[in-house]
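User: Quick sanity check before I run a bigger batch. Here is a single chain. Can you write out its predicted 3D structure?
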Amino acid sequence: MTDPLRMTFEVGCSAEHAFTVWTSGIDGWWPRDHTVTRAEELQVVLEPRVGGRVFERTPDGDEHQWGQVTTWDPPYRVGYTWYLGTEPAMATDVEIRFVARDIDRTDVVIEHSGWERLADVGAALRDRNHLGWSTLLPHFVAATEQGEA
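Assistant: Done. Predicted structure follows.
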């Protein structure tokens, strides 16, 4: 069995703000080099409901789906399947929890699991995603620091 990736870090904002930045604000912080097309002018979308899609839309209107929302519990938790750059049959599971420590401090807890479903390639993809998370998360943290509306 391949262990889930687990990451916990603190952001200096409310849980509500952190949840909003991760979900409806994702297009503002998601780096374009973490996409299928890497197009500068693409749009990153997380549809706010169970069954909603996580995808990129290019300036030409092409869409590349990355996953599907499985949990929608604002402002505490969002979960989705994840298969950016692969096929839905290669999906893993991502769950992000936003745990308020006080009014302006929140722990963000990420669990990325399901690697065992990928058989022989699961461990290698887990390692690749670990690197991906480490380069992605500073963008999210910086976006949370831009202030609450």
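The two ends are 43 Å apart (CA to CA).

User: Great, the batch can go ahead then.
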